[in-house]
Amino acid sequence: MVNIYTLKDVSKHNTKEDMWVVLHNKVYNVTAFVPAHPGSEDILITRAAGKDATEAFEDINHSELARETLEQFMIGQLHEDVS
Ligand code: HEM
Fold first, then answer.
1. Where in the numbering of this chain does the Cytochrome b5 heme-binding domain appear (predicted)?
2. I need a labelling partner for 16 at 20 to 30 A (CA). Which of 3, 28, 42, 50 fits?
3. Domain 4-78: which CATH number of 3.30.70.1400, 3.10.120.10, 3.40.50.10800, 3.90.1170.50
């Protein structure tokens, strides 16, 4: 069973202590990763926390390693009718 979340659900998790993010219609709980982000934790909090950060993520050409790192944090998918 896949968990389905709306952007409203995701937006409630927008802090350093509890951070979800949407990338390519998948929802990730990246709380544990925030302090380890090579691009700084601040940039994640201000640009990605509780949001769809697909564009910001792709803008800097993240590596395959970054994409693989993400997999362990996936918690579900974005509701397709809610933008
Ligand atoms: C939440 C998912 C994310 C993961 C797992 C992640 C992971 C990483 C990793 C592993 C790197 C090292 C370089 C590489 O391997 O590509 C990196 C660098 C970086 N990330 Fe992210 N990132 C995420 C989201 C973001 C977002 C949303 C932004 C922008 C708003 C961002 C901005 C940056 C920047 C600017 C660097 C470059 C740091 C430098 O080269 O000095 N990241 N990220």
1. 2-79
2. 3
3. 3.10.120.10
Six token digits for residue 28: 């990730």
For ligand 1, whether the C-beta of 27 sits within 6 Å is no
d(CA 72, CA 69): 6
End-to-end C-alpha distance for the chain, whole angstroms? 22
CA nearest ligand 1 atom 25, residue = 57
What pLDDT band is residue 80 in, cutting at 50, 70 and 90? confident
